[in-house]
């Protein structure tokens, strides 16, 4: 039986399924693997089921003397923590879990949109602090979301799921930017540049993959293009956004608010963001629902099973 390392405790269903196929070791530690542990794991296991935070960067592969490991079956759609080219150079396959994460992540985008536009986080803090003076006609007026324009940067699976929620659920107009043309089965307008989308949107949402190619794609120029009344939402990856530029835009009143599920240096969230009432901050909750995490895990296990059965894993990325 192939030896597999699962790098974090996982829902029971995932572990049961993994154990049906493999000799599984589950790391009983909820912190990311350290470089030495990653090199050790590459030498000891036939396959690894890593998660966000396990930074399989180029040096981990180049410094690994030999690798018994043949596949990293990532738990999650985003795999920017894995240097896929370096893995390939060592003959290690990488797979991910698209599809399983789409709806849950889009739901969190909607949560953040409503939290920031309708000042829900701020309102909840007010109530909990015992500072609510009672209803009045002009208290805590936010941005009316229904019927507004959402701008989406990255019209992949998650971007489309967000667009549909906005369009069909909230009657919003959708404008977007995507590297390639996307055939869509709903009304949405593709604009020529990210800045154009930023300038048109009442709410701008980023839904592109992270990594070197998209690092700081959302920067000072994009925030400058946004309207002072517009809100910014990030459910993608922290490094897609120049966090310092976002903080400056918020502090200068260049934009009205932000809703964030991801950060440049997780779990570090800048104090400047925590200090602002018009910012909603979530702890990377994108896929945090039991059935979603089960589906992600089962998908990762299926990638492992297929790989070791000599089939092409359904979600191979390299
Ligand atoms: C996951 C995510 O929870 O799927 C992704 O890419 O961002 C998350 O919601 C995380 O990646 C788990 O490894």
TrEMBL record:
- Recorded family membership: Belongs to the D-isomer specific 2-hydroxyacid dehydrogenase family.
The segment(s) forming the D-isomer specific 2-hydroxyacid dehydrogenase catalytic domain are: 4-318
What cellular component terms from Gene Ontology apply here? cytosol
Establish whether keyword Ribonucleoprotein is in the entry.
no
The organism's superkingdom is given as Bacteria
Q: What is this protein called?
A: Glycerate dehydrogenase
**PANTHER family, A to Z:** 2-HYDROXYACID DEHYDROGENASE YGL185C-RELATED, 2-HYDROXYACID DEHYDROGENASE-RELATED
Q: What is the lineage of its organism?
A: Bacteria, Pseudomonadati, Pseudomonadota, Alphaproteobacteria, Rhodobacterales
Name one molecular function that GO assigns to this entry.
NAD binding
Give yes or no: UniProt keyword Oxidoreductase. Answer: yes
The top EC class is oxidoreductase
Signal peptide bounds: none
Task: Enumerate the UniProt keywords alphabetically.
Answer: NAD, Oxidoreductase
Which Pfam families does this entry report, sorted A to Z?
2-Hacid_dh, 2-Hacid_dh_C
Q: Which residues form the D-isomer specific 2-hydroxyacid dehydrogenase NAD-binding domain?
A: 110-286
